[in-house]
Amino acid sequence: MTKLKIKIATVALSLAIMGTGCSKFLDVNENPNKPTTADVKLLLPSAAASTSHVLSNQLGINSGLWAQYWTQSPYSSQYKTNDRYLNTSTSQDRPWLIVWRNALQNYENVIQNYGQFSQHGAIAYLLKAYTFQMATDAWGDIPLKEALKGGDSLAVGYDTQEAVYDSVFSWISKGQALIDPANQFKPGAEDLFFNGDMDQWRRFANTMKLRAYLRIVKAAPGKAEAGIRALQTANATFLEKDAKITYSSSGGNENPMFAEILGLGRTQNLVASSTAIDAMTANKDPRLKVLYTTVTNEYNGVDIDTIVGIPQGSYGTIPPFQVSFPSAATGGLGDDNNSALAPVIFISAAESYFLQAEAAVRGWLAGTPATLFRSGITASFTANNLTAAAPAYIAAAPDAQWPATNANDAQIKAIITQKYYAMNGKQTFEAWTEWRRTGFPSFFVVSKVGALGAGKFPLRLPYPNTELTTNAKFPGAIKLDVPVWWDK
């Protein structure tokens, strides 16, 4: 692989505190293989911004289509290939390089050189684990033991997803062991998530472990149960606020998905998918008007304001009505500069509660599942500035009703369906990944132009062309409809 020189667009925050521009943190224009100890304060936010870029931009846009929050607009063409499930290997070259060269290599450099800045090392371990999990969930088997050696080897071996997950759990534990809120060298503004609040990082670590153990519940149920029970024994605390990176409207620091839209001349390629719209409309969900634009259409001779989607993959037909777009709150509205301000959420408070609810349903974690389920809904409403509307929704919405028993996975279905609604437009990769793991929500439809065959959905991303053509140890391409390891 060649060295990547790229400036990752990200946050212009905490300038008053730091007395400097964010470019000090976020320019990645040099080989970082031999950093000094002081450099860890620059490498850490740069690496975090790189993970965020891929999560929101390349993976986020594609997953928003495959999670059926959005579909390709009939009036443009950028994501027709994605809607057809025909993603090319070349489309993965850039996200792969950003993940390995800008994110993971810099986390590793921080870990190897943190010195007195052990809290930076703790965060680097946790975000390294997060990024490796994201990568293996996207592509399957990936380089592990022979990766991050600091060179340009063209022969890097691949390891199994199970081995990657074992390393993820190990890195989280190593990060947890380094956390010391009393450490005098704790991070400041270079911590793009919590501004040096190490208790929040402890919660992040526990929540990430819970997420990862639930991910492998079908592939390695014994390991999943033991890991979650260990969290219970340790009286682990979990996130009650979003772990997110916030952005600004200044040039080069916009939300990464909006940066993609700007690069395409603000063309509105993404429109609302009727899959998500119809399901949320059936529940009279007020979050719709936060997550999508409202359009005016005629109904029985009267103009009414509505949220309207089109069927997945129906870009070949011009609809006889106006269609909603993803809103600025998601970063997906091309003609609204407020899209630049949309945060990239790594783990949300709502997700944290839903993860706890599922673990409690399985009997592995303390807590009342129904209460945690409703707390997840409330946290989602709060994140969308709709706290006051949550009680009425919980009382009346069909998909907000807690099943009396878990017969046929009814309670888990309720949890994951609400998680899907909560992640709409904001955690699209995780929503698509959870659908692959659980099969919920159960109302997905195959794209009208899907090219994988009858009834087939994409279950992974293709490996990048750079691996096919330059890595002598590349194990071979895999079809998009082949499930990853934990997808049983």
From TrEMBL:
Superkingdom of this protein's organism: Bacteria
Keyword tags: Signal
Keyword Mitochondrion: no
PROSITE patterns: PROKAR_LIPOPROTEIN
Keyword Nucleotide-binding in annotation: no
Gene3D superfamilies in UniProt: 1.25.40.390
InterPro entries: SusD-like_2 (IPR041662), TPR-like_helical_dom_sf (IPR011990)
Signal peptide: 1-23
Protein name, as recorded: Starch-binding associating with outer membrane
Annotated organism of origin: Chitinophaga niabensis
